[in-house]
Write the structure tokens for this entry.
Amino acid sequence: MPHLSPATLGVIRLAWAATLLAAPAAVVGAFGGPADPNSVTVARALGARHATQGLIEVAAGPKWSRAGSFVDAVHSLTAAGLGLSAARWRRVGLIDSVVAATFACAGWTLVEPAR
């Protein structure tokens, strides 16, 4: 199975964070949600969380990439819950759940384990 360095995963996450921070309304709109002030604030908060996690992955290595997978898994579950419980947020919640699950899986399976 191919491996990523934790730094590579961190850089990918930082790019996603930059997108959420720079254009939150565009991301929410592209995901099918209403780009109202509350959703823009939530997207920015998620961008800040991804930026923090990405910086930790770049600086700290595989152990923290695996720990970050737990954070991403919880995020995925809560986003899925939102998508399944609120029709207005169904599409954006489910897409965000898939994005978070992808980061969780990448951090757990693709990052080379610490030796």
